[in-house]
Amino acid sequence: MKERIKTIIQTEGLTPSSFADVIHVSRASVNHILNGRNNPSLEVFSKILATFDNINSDWLLNGKEPMYKKVKGVFQNDLFDKVIIEEDKEPEKREYPKENELKTPNNNFNNAIINNLELKKETSKKISKIMILYSDKTYDILSPE
Question: Which pLDDT tens digit goes with each residue over 4-56?
């Protein structure tokens, strides 16, 4: 399984530390797995499959080809959207944030607020700005674009 995890890291264009950040496990855990010190736990296995939903679980666990799931058909993402997925199509490379971007707490928070602003555009009240105060006495002002 260690070699298959290395394959995932390589094909997704990640480093071991960014892989650990993406699947939300400690960097030490991934390092111990890749060095052969520890075997992956069920938690690590399930986090890999949850993050990389196109990875075939039989391949990850037992090495049975193919690496990626073969899917065909129409899937419904939410109540009204339909997505058509083609069979035997190689998955596109995912874009992951750089390691230093993962450590900045306000990137995800700012995006969540801005996305929330987009949802509230339908009301008659409009938000003109939001001020975020940090414990180090700095602040950010967010305004809808």
Answer: 999 989 988 899 999 999 999 999 999 999 998 999 898 998 999 999 888 88
DSSP class of residue 101 equals: H
DSSP string across 66-92: PSBPP--EEEESSSS-EEEE-TTPPPP
Element at 139 (helix H, strand E): strand 139-142
3-state SS assignment for residue 125: coil
Q: How would you classify the pairing of strands 139-142 and 130-133? A: antiparallel
Measure the CA dihedral 62/92/69/36, to 10°: 10
10 Å CB burial of residue 45 (0-12, 13-18, 19+) is middle
Number of Cβ atoms within 10 Å of the Cβ of 48:
21
- The two tokens of residue 141 are 């002002």
Residues in the chain: 145
pTM to 2 decimal places: 0.49
Pairing between strand 73-76 and 139-142? unpaired
